[in-house]
Amino acid sequence: MSAERKRLMLALAVIFALNIFIIALAQSASAELYKKGSGGETVSQIQTRLKNWGYYDGAVDGVYGSRTEAAVRWFQQKNGLSPDGQVGDQTLAALGISSGGGGGSGSGSGSQSGDLYLLARLISAEARGEPYVGQVAVGAVVLNRVEHPSFPNSISGVVYQPGAFSCLDDGQFNEPVAESAYRAAQEALNGYDPSYGAIYYFNPATATSRWIWSRPLIVQIGSHRFCA
User: Fold this and answer.
1) Per-residue pLDDT, 22
2) pLDDT score, position 70
3) Cα–Cα distances in angstroms (integers) from residue 158 to residues 52, 54, 165, 218, in the given order
4) CA of 6: how far to CAs of 15, 17, 18, 207, in Å?
5) More confident residue, 13 or 146
6) What are phi and psi of 87, to 5 degrees?
7) What percent helix, strand, coil does the chain show, rounded to 5?
8) CA atoms within 13 A on the CB side of 109
9) Cα–Cα dist 131/150, whole Å
10) How many CA atoms lie within 13 A of 69 on its CB side?
């Protein structure tokens, strides 16, 4: 092989290696990861969510220490996520926090994607096998609760409110999300409410609470009664 050809091959190898390095660098920069030693406003939001839901009992100080790491790991274990104690995109979404640093039900695209993910997971777990319009109605109930003064004022707060949805306790929430649930969640977020303002629903074949039967019926869709 001539010297000129060797130089050409070496130059091409260097260019290839640089391209790989640049791609890897861009990917690492775009994927936010909060872990022990991190700090800032998003860490404070993580701590606040975990504290509100009973996973964390430390100070909301924006410092990602050992107690925050342990709380994150516990949250991940309970919600079908890899329990590595680090908060990446999936855990941020499960917490309802925008990957851009926002949270709650804001209008940013990161927050919207987190809300969509949570709502779809709940719809799939609670209404898998129900008619499509019934799946949308379940999502609408969650959104109606967000607007109601008796419930938390964010989608993540409503979904994770203790005792609100049995699917968080029986493992259904951790099952793969049905494709129809994503479409139903998006329709609910877009304002479609086939529940007509309901804030409760239940399956009369499996309900054990006498109280839920006292709620005024608005409409029945599939197996679910939607109530005020």
Assistant:
1) 53
2) 94
3) 12, 14, 9, 21
4) 14, 16, 18, 76
5) 146
6) -105, 105
7) 55, 10, 40
8) 0
9) 28
10) 12
